[in-house]
Amino acid sequence: PPKVTPFSFQDELIREGARARIQCVIREGQSPIKITWLKDGQLIAPDQGVLIREIDEFSSILMISSISPRHNGNYTCKATNAAGTAQHTAPLFVNVPPKIVHFAFQDDQFFKGMRAQIVCAVSQGDMPITFQWLKDGKSISTSMGITTRNYDEHANSLTIENVSSAHTGNYTCVASNRAAKVSHTAQLLVHGTVSNSLSVHWTM
Question: Where does the record place the Ig-like domain (predicted)?
Answer without folding.
Answer: 2-93, 98-183
